[in-house]
Amino acid sequence: MTTLSCPLRSLLKHTDCLRRAAVSCHVLPGSPQRSLGASLWRRNFRALSHGATGELLSLQSGAKTSAASACSSSSDGQDVTQKLWSVYTETKRQTEVMSTSSVDPDTIFANNEMSLRDIEIYGFDYDYTLAFYSSHLHTLIFNIARDILITNHRYPEGLRKYEYIPDFAVRGLHYDVQKALLMKIDAFHYIQLGTVYRGLDPVPDEEVIAMYEGSHVPLEIMSDFYGKSTHEHTMKQFMDIFSLPEMTLLSCVNDFFMRHNIDYEPVHLYKDVKEAIRDVHVKGIMYRAVEADTEKYICYGEQSQAVLRKLSAYGKRMFLITNSPFDFVNRGMSYIVGEDWRDLFDVVIVQADKPSFFNDRRKPFRRVTDKGALLWDRIHRLERGQIYKQGNLYEFLRLTGWRGSKVLYFGDHIYSDLANQQLVICQQVSPHNPMNLKKVSNVAC
């Protein structure tokens, strides 16, 4: 970010920069521009002394002193040009330094204000929203997918030495399928230099710039809104918390091939890892492991239970929409909330197949028995205490009549839970943070 593009309000946060900005008024003694510059500075500073910016100035120790000294005369013989470049360089450096010391990590940042008193219907996803998983789950997914690569896809046995690295990846990273690079890309499609990894090793900035002819990534090779990639979209974004083991496994396999000088096709590697991760879920391997040892993998949800029971006590209506199967959800919710958890929800939908749930009008709802069997009768209403599978948004709206700003839905996956179609249900949607439920439980409904 250049100095000219940096808001003055931001620069005022740096007292040191403000002090050095005095050079901007230091022109040759006796020059008419000097008095004009001083006059303009004093006028602008008086204007900034009012309102929100003035409030900011009042919090900065020495800010007014720095501003007042900005127009003091410079010493004879000083190189004004050199000093201006010095101020520019230092200010530019400080604007590029990221500081999070003043940010509370537990703060919830909202882009739409609302009053919970106006909310009558609450919707929830299950995984990582009502159910909080321990770190053992990511290790489980990684190990199972790694073994699937070795057993089913004939990958080298040497991959077994790789273990899951908990702090290696975060949600939101992009993976270049063709170049086998994991990286962070900002909202303006610029690669954040210093975040690019090939395997488990960082890639030098110079090499990154050479490969991409700069740091900007063209929109046409980015994945679409739902995070999906086509043959033309080489950048896959990982937004699901479940994708952390996938990113780590991709990097570990890349690392193994490079260290052993094995020639490979990055696209095939990506597809094989993706299929292995999918098998962990689709074939029920992960679900059976969690059901067999619930206490190991699911953190006891005191906050979830407190929120659900409080909302129910205040007469709020609730629904659950999840992609997970009934047996898995039932085991987890019984552990978190209690055997009566179904009595708290007006509608429960499992294996919803989000995000297709929001834009596919063809899939009807099917009722699921307590033993997991599917019934074939047509659904004319969604009944409390019953379990439904699949379905679609439009049928959901027709059968419940719920819509408008009185509905609030909590989910953890930006593509599956907060898709544009979701706005048809409600004008209020919230990407889930574990602290959300804690704070909701402390709000009077």
From TrEMBL:
Gene3D superfamilies: HAD superfamily/HAD-like. GO terms for molecular function: 5'-nucleotidase activity; metal ion binding. Keywords: Hydrolase, Magnesium, Metal-binding. Coiled coil: none annotated. It holds the Pfam family 5_nucleotid. Belongs to the 5'(3')-deoxyribonucleotidase family. This is 5'-nucleotidase domain containing 3.
